[in-house]
Amino acid sequence: MALLSIRNLEVVFPLRTGTIPAIQDVSYDLEEGERIGIVGESGAGKSVSAFAILNLVSQPGYLSSGSIVFEGQEISNADDETMRRIRGNKISMIFQDPMMTLNPVLTISTQMEETLLAHTRMTREAARSIAIEKLRAVQIPSPEKRLEQYPHELSGGMRQRIVIAISLLTDPRIIIADEPTTALDVTIQAEILELLLALCNDYRMGLILITHDLGVVSQISQRILVMYAGRIIEQGNTREVIASPAHPYTRGLVGALPEMTRPGRRLNQIPGTMPSLQSIPTGCPFHDRCSHVTDLCRSHRPDLVSGSRRAVACHHPLTG
Amino acid sequence: MNSTPGQESESLVSVRNLYRYFNVSGGWLDQISISKGKMVRKVEMVKALNGINLEIEKGEALCLVGESGCGKTTVGRTVMGLLSPTRGSVHYRESRIDTLDRKGMLPFRRKMQMIFQNHHASLNPRKTVAKTLLEPIRFHQPELSLPEQRDKVASIMESVGVDAGWGARFPHEFSGGQRQRISIARALIVDPEFIVADEPISALDVSIQAQVLNLLMEAREERGLTYLFVTHDLSVVEHFGSRVAVMYLGRVCEVGQVGEVFSEPRHPYTQALLSAIPKVGGEKRRHVKLKGEVPTPIDLPSGCIFHSRCPHAREICSKEAPELVSAGEWTDVACHGVRENWF
Amino acid sequence: MSSDTLEISGSFRKRLLDSPVYYSFVRNPTAMASAAVLASFILSSALAPWLAPFDPWDQTQFDIMDSEIPPAGSDGADGRFLLGTDAMGRDMLSTILYGTGISIVIGVFATILQAAIGVTVGLAAGYFGGRLDSFLMRIADIQLSFTTLMVAIIILAVFQTTVGPRFHEDFAVMIIILVIGVAEWPQYARTVRACVLGEKKKEYVDAARVIGLGPTRILYRHILPNTFSPLLVISTVQVANAIITEAALSFLGLGMPVTKPSLGALIRNGFEFIFSGAWWITAFPAVVLVVLILSINLLGDWLRDVLNPRLYEK
Question: CB of A278 within 8 Å of any CB in chain B?
Fold first, then answer.
């Protein structure tokens, strides 16, 4: 039994030109302590497919169908009260911009204690000692001093550590991290990634990492989901998928990385851009950018066919 | 200064001993404070550039890398004359250009162009792309007839891969990659020799990054362009650059041929930076950890600006600032430790 | 490829029909209703010389014997005067039609004058910054610290006593426009300056500088067009405000003369008779004024929502 099991999730946005699906047919499992990475370009639906778990899809979007089972409980139709107990408690979030989580006019201690007191009955002293313990866990030097500071007094990397510490407060089972290091410099990114990895191992937490950076996924996630135009088009073990991508899009993404090509050579590029969600072509959503396209691809959309641990949505998957 | 192997060096752009400070203490009234019963005026300066020397040779792609706040963008903007240096000078071939007024700069404006990072903001949202592209030709080549100008716009649009039939569209009707192509077209349309590209691909999606990077490399081959390429992405540097200058807190700590710097980084900061790149697929590199955080550029550390975070720092590092000296065949490094072989 | 494939600008009609402004307008009943009301006011007052049964500015056309005739439907109504007459025997309907025109003209032109001064000052202050900015903005602050009413009362009182009432009648409209225009330009200056500060950081301005364009060209061709949305929004508020200010001034006896009354002057005119039972002399112009201001403000609210950059970008 998986910790989190998502089946046929669909989120739609009613827009002025009609209702468009932001994600369709998204299904995946997360085992306890497993780390998965969802990659894709902007608009591919990677954030929506993770936010939908917590019913945090931005207005006017909503979850139109599908099931989300967390610890054996169906939560896709849960009421606000149930969601509040899960959100920020058993499943926490880390955003790209730490200031999305941190309130600029409150000290770190107030914010951390409030979070704890909102979810559990305890004294302020107890809350404070847990806060200090979590700040230690994210390797913040002299946590007692940091608690009295305001977010603006801290550097970007330090703020992101605080946010991670806040997300750890309630000992969550799953952390959803949306581009947690995109706004940071490489040296700080490396530290934060190392920290996340260590924390997941230490606390046996599941991690859903949303990123556009294949390098980051490679370092953190055991399993990778590649999304394109609102659907999962390939998933599997991170190493295997990156070493031998089966979907032409995944291969294009990997091949487009500068480090995959000899310096000075033309990069392998995927022509065109991802279709906007209003104008997804019929058949395979990738067919008009694909070099292996056939008539079948133009007329029929391939389903995500799963092998043992590998799944790909392509009529003509690549081998080797 | 070292040059690319097997090529007679000829500097197209040179930056000499460049300093740039920004006043962050606000207006005149904000600077006055009372301390010990006396009125004092305190001026706080962010020291963004602290003695930068760069020679950019004709035909090369010099990459400026460093983390946010290291001053790499400031170098690009100062070279383009968007900022004036606090001290030091910028030269284009033999001419000093940082002291020229707007009219005096005009002949150089055709030769030097710039590509910006933010594709949302780099095109005027109220102008059609054809108007945006016509503006530089109308301004610099008013002698051309209207059909000639339109031909030029149409051909530049085709050459960057944007359908010329879309000229009457507004920037918001294009995707990010296409907007960046149009920005590149605007820079190329006056046939420049030298381009400052300020993070031109970092706001784009991965597959689009490859397209734009290819476009920039093609433009370089076809037009013999010289680039000053400002980026934080080291994998792009390795792929695109011929030389690289690593900046930290407004100083160049290592400059050299890309292959050599990447295979054998010498400056401790370069080592840390390279070890931090998340590698796709392959094994993890041993991550060289740095102590603490980047100091504020308002109060720079004494001596070597990196000493407060350097794992190899000794006493001399906090007293004397190291100069850039030749360290490898094609590399200059500013580090006492490298010069005296401590590590 | 040839130059014929290159289109430089698209058709205005297509742009308008595709724009989110149009889209939201045809789906917003409040906006459409306000626009319809406003348009009917503008149209009827512009066509007043043809629509109005009488010319209220021509003293020979009305008779004191017709004074204070109540509107149609009341006791003693007269079929010639749909909305009754005032104390001088003027037809209220005609007077209101003409008066609305005067109010709108004053509102629009005072706003144009405010915009002309404010935009120039705001552009210069925002783009050049430094001491010029501090200097211009301090002047704006000083200007704002005198309320419009205070400025108007001083200027108009001095003007009326020095040039005499005859002369005043002929130039009243222009003087009021001038007063309201001068008193409220800082609103524009501040908005434009804030916009310019935001816009000039954007990279398209740097790109224009890299091309070599001069500051005037950058300001007027690149930055100014990008400040239009907020300008349009505050313009609706300012027109409404100018009309109200004018009404207030007229009510205080400092605005339009009784012989060429605006809505405000009409309200004042009838105010004296409200206790003698002739409520219609005040009530009708007051209703027109309220509906006019309301329709402008509702339209302005809608415009602000549509043009809000955060909503607009999506």
Answer: no
